[in-house]
Specification:
The complex is a heterotrimer of chains A (252), B (207) and C (474). Chain A has 252 residues and is an alpha/beta fold. In chain A, 49% of the residues lie in helices and 10% in strands. Chain C is built from 22 helices and 13 strands. Classes of the chains: A alpha/beta (252), B alpha/beta (207), C alpha/beta (474). Strand 9 of chain B pairs antiparallel with strand 9 of chain C.
């Protein structure tokens, strides 16, 4: 019996990387999940939370909880580690004193998973059995907000152990790409310096594909790479897996 | 005047040695100490008690030759009998200064020779304490420090040192020495012998 | 998104423009982080030691008064003299008075962040005391009339050429770029000072309540010389430095230097228990401990208490991607880097330092390397919250956030905003990317291309995706 899963696509993926959402749906279905998309969802409140607007973050959180009601699915899966962390760690903290929502925030927190951890921990997917789907060299960028959710070793193993992959480890993998939400807009100079380092490190691996599991990181690094004419293709783990499993043939 | 009674608090639980120890008592302590002391940059010589004096004298000669000092000046913090034996052996090869003569003697010394209160296998540290004939300056001012460690003085871990190895009345100064004086302030390049000794020799005396 | 150009922006711009400075800070920081990895891997119980260190600090800071009281009693029992300084000015005045009362004229200093915090050197100079910094890095900082830029490695921002020029100019020694010779010059110059000095000034790494012990951790030997040679030793200790028991030292010493330089322990760990006794042949005749509050007690009673757990290892600076690019001076504070972003606005005027809590991507690498597990990103978010609640966020930024929150408040508004944004970025667009946004948005594409909302968002694609799933299910 497959799991019933609600997709929390996140505002950035919905807006800028819809193909990642499609890939997540198809991979989950491939592993027998029944996938729903609650139409009421927008944002988990992370931008408000990180920037100190906690009243607004709590309001957004309540809307999030209302949108994901557990009548007909067991789990919530999202292709973003930072949004998963927001729902799992910060929402319950923000709504702790809310009579109506405190309990529900815990329930949502418990059942929410970042895509890669859901595959590993709930579906027990054996990554070594999934074909890499590309013969080109691949590297992996560890998104900072996966800290506390997945270790660097655990997260990168989901890429490096795919069948037949030409994996190139990334130097200084713990370093941030410079995204950081509003940080990038308020301090463009510092953010750019960080992104330049990241692109240089990616280019030095010789990889032609970089796996980045966070929409914000992905467009920050890709935007910088494009400006420097570094030709690396950026993919979410879901896309890499979906391609390896032959699920993306009808996508442009 | 009576002190105000302190509010009672729930004290911290005792530290569990099995959690905190990085070196357990069941290992070969002397071997571990020698290995770690070498790792932090000290030169280790192992010997037996009978020939300790000869080994120290020999070391003094070697160091002096290498530093290009014809007749090295020494300050020595050892027990009376040992000190006398060493002075006799070195009589014609070195001058032993008396630190009681003041700063001139202390600052003139090329080599300081000391015993230790204890040694720590985990970190390769010498533990030196101040007290009768325990000059804080002897292991500090000369460019070379020679320390004599008896194997029985080696404790496994910092935990053991602080938990049970220090004298009942705590000495004024306890110094853990773990290597020659070092800096990496200039471009991260390691240089030894900044303000303290450039070379530290440890003679480990086995039973 | 910034309404005005601040002092911080200017400092940042200056360092960002200095490629060689960033390279040297980046390389040194990275090599330290790598040394830390090697050193901690050799200790299988390192994570448990971090837990223990955290637990001890948490307990001590929670019961700070209790342990301070015991510490004071024990220092006095050891024959030491205890002073209290509520402010930086009090601390400086107190130490100047000790110097005057004892006729002290020549001071040697061990690197101590507390003395940087109070600006002690200037105060002593005004009181007629000549002060020599004796840590090699701080000595060079003093020679070159510079400021330290790292709490452990103060001249991380200087290369050997600038050091050589400073020594040549100030000490009259021949110019050399050989670090060994430069170090030798400093040794020789300070030898004579150590011989003549009458006042030694240090900070305190750990103050042990149980025994009244002052523990200082150094590598060069200047810490020992400065606390052995002079007639009077004054230790300026932040009140948060107290720990309960002597045995707790074993926990902290194990994590302190491994976290920064990767050494198992610093070369010299000095434990001092009062002034010289009858039986001691050398050592200072007086030991003064000056307990510094300067804002710490207020922190201890508030929501930022956790920051007082810090043992000043400097690992968070080494880890921090922002620190690596802007260097320590940009923070205009004694405490730079992640720890400084929290501590500086708490110890000083938060308005002046409003940029510091914002200048972080909240990446959390600092938290990963902190030996006492301080959740620095969480504290930064709390500081941002204080700014938002106190209307201290610049109006333009506040407006931008309001617009964003409104746009994300319902699926309809979000859909509408996605379309507006797609068409709003059409000028200068190349497909789904834009490299030349117009008007005030231009700074978003100054350094990198920016993505445009997709022609069909996921929400648009979901209908066919759902139908596709229904077909495969049958």
């Amino acid at each position: 019996m497959g799991k019933s899963v609600a997709l929390f696509v996140t505002c950035l993926t919905d807006t800028f990387a819809p193909r990642v959402g499609v890939a997540v749906v198809r991979v989950l279905r491939h592993f027998g999940c029944d996938v729903r998309f609650p139409e009421g969802q927008t944002c988990c409140g992370q931008p408000a939370y990180n920037n100190g607007f906690h009243r607004e973050a709590a309001a957004q959180g309540r809307r999030m909880i209302d949108a994901f009601d557990f009548a007909d699915y067991e789990h919530v899966v999202t292709p973003s580690g930072s949004c998963a962390a927001m729902v799992k760690h910060h929402l319950p903290e923000l709504l702790a004193d809310d009579a109506e929502y405190a309990e529900r925030s815990w329930r949502l927190a418990e059942r929410t998973y970042e895509f890669g951890t859901f595959l590993a921990d709930v579906l027990h997917v054996d990554f070594t059995q999934i074909p890499a789907g590309t013969s080109r060299p691949v590297t992996y960028h560890y998104s900072c907000h996966l800290r506390g959710i997945q270790t660097i070793e655990g997260a990168s193993a989901q890429v490096s152990r795919l069948a037949g992959i030409d994996y190139r480890p990334l130097a200084q993998i713990e370093q941030c790409c410079g995204f950081g939400g509003a940080f990038g807009a308020v301090f463009p100079g510092i953010s750019n310096a960080m992104s330049q380092d990241k692109v240089t490190a990616i280019a030095a691996t010789g990889a032609e594909v970089a796996v980045v599991n966070e929409a914000g990181c992905s467009f920050t690094i890709e935007g910088t790479a494009r400006r420097r004419s570094v030709s690396v293709q950026f993919k979410h783990l879901a896309e890499l897996l979906a391609e390896g499993l032959g699920l993306m043939d009808d996508q442009p | 005047m009576r002190r105000s009674v302190t509010r009672q608090i729930v004290p911290l639980p005792a530290i569990d040695p099995s959690v905190v120890r990085c070196c357990t008592p069941d290992v070969d302590l002397a071997a571990t100490f020698c290995e770690r002391a070498s790792e932090v940059g000290m030169h280790v010589v192992r010997t037996t008690s009978g020939i300790c004096t000869e080994r120290v004298a020999e070391l003094v000669g070697n160091v002096a030759t290498r530093l290009g000092i014809a007749h090295p000046k020494l300050i020595i913090d050892l027990q009376l009998a040992e000190r006398a034996a060493l002075c006799a052996t070195l009589a014609d090869r070195a001058t032993v200064l008396d630190p009681h003569d003041g700063d001139d003697a202390l600052f003139a010394a090329d080599i300081g020779i000391t015993s230790v209160e204890a040694a720590v296998a985990e970190t390769g540290s010498l533990v030196s304490v101040s007290g009768q004939e325990g000059w804080r300056s002897t292991s500090l001012l000369p460019v070379v420090h020679i320390a004599i460690v008896r194997a029985a003085q080696i404790v496994p871990d910092l935990y053991d040192l602080f938990e049970s190895r220090l004298p009942k009345r705590i000495p004024t100064a306890i110094t853990l020495i773990s290597g020659p004086s070092k800096t990496a302030d200039i471009e991260g390049i390691l240089i030894t012998g900044v303000h303290g000794p450039r070379e530290v020799y440890v003679i480990v005396v086995d039973k | 998104m910034k309404c005005s150009h601040t002092w911080f922006d200017e400092n940042v711009a200056r360092t960002l423009a200095d490629e060689s400075l960033r390279a040297v800070i980046g390389q040194t920081s990275q090599s330290k982080i790598e040394s830390r990895v090697v050193a901690t891997a050799k200790v299988p119980n390192f994570e448990q030691l971090r837990d223990l260190a955290t637990q001890i600090k948490q307990h001590t800071i929670e019961h700070l008064d209790h342990y301070l009281e015991r510490f004071i009693e024990q220092v006095r029992a050891n024959g030491g003299i205890v002073h209290f300084a509520a402010t930086a000015a009090d601390a400086n005045a107190c130490i100047a008075r000790i110097a005057q009362d004892n006729g002290l004229k020549l001071a040697v200093k061990v690197k101590a962040m507390t003395t940087e915090e109070t600006g002690l050197n200037a105060a002593l100079a005004a009181a007629g005391v000549q002060v020599f910094e004796t840590d090699l890095g701080e000595f060079i900082v003093q020679l070159d009339n510079d400021r330290p830029s790292h709490i452990v490695t103060p001249i991380i921002h200087k290369n050997r050429q600038t050091i050589a020029r400073a020594m040549q100019r100030e000490l009259g020694v021949p110019y050399t770029e050989d670090p060994e010779t430069l170090t030798r010059y400093a040794r020789e110059h300070l030898r004579d000072v150590f011989r003549r000095c009458d006042l030694g000034i240090s900070g305190v790494n750990f103050g042990v309540a149980e025994t009244g012990t002052i523990c200082i951790c150094t590598n060069e030997g200047n810490g020992r010389l400065s606390t052995t040679r002079p007639r009077v030793h004054v230790a300026l200790m932040g009140i948060e430095k107290v720990i309960p028991r002597l045995v707790d030292l074993s926990v902290f010493l194990k994590v302190l230097s491994r976290s920064n330089t990767g050494q198992p322990i610093t070369v010299y760990t000095s434990l001092m228990n009062g002034p010289r006794r009858e039986s001691d042949p050398d050592g200072p005749e007086q030991l003064h401990v000056v307990l510094l509050d300067n804002g710490r007690r207020a922190i201890q009673q508030g929501r930022y208490r956790e920051i007082l757990h810090c043992i000043r290892c400097g690992a968070c600076l080494n880890a921090c991607p922002v620190y690596r690019h802007i260097g320590g001076h940009a923070y205009d504070s004694v405490y730079p880097g992640p720890i400084g972003k929290v501590l500086t606005p708490l110890l000083n005027d938060p308005k002046h330092y409003a940029d510091l809590p914002q200048a972080s991507s909240l990446c959390g690498f600092c938290r990963d390397v902190c030996p006492v597990r301080i959740d620095i990103p969480d504290l930064l978010v709390r500081l941002r919250r204080d700014q938002a609640d106190g209307k201290a966020v610049p109006w333009l930024r506040r407006l931008a956030f309001r617009a964003l929150f409104w746009a994300l408040s319902t699926p309809r508004l979000m859909r509408w905003s996605q379309r507006v944004l797609r068409w709003g970025t059409v000028v200068g667009a190349k497909g789904d990317w834009n490299s030349r946004l117009p008007g005030p948005a231009a700074q978003l594409t100054r350094h990198r291309d920016t993505p445009r909302p997709a022609a069909k968002t996921f929400r648009d694609l979901w209908q066919s995706e759902r139908d596709r799933g229904d077909q495969t299910d049958q």
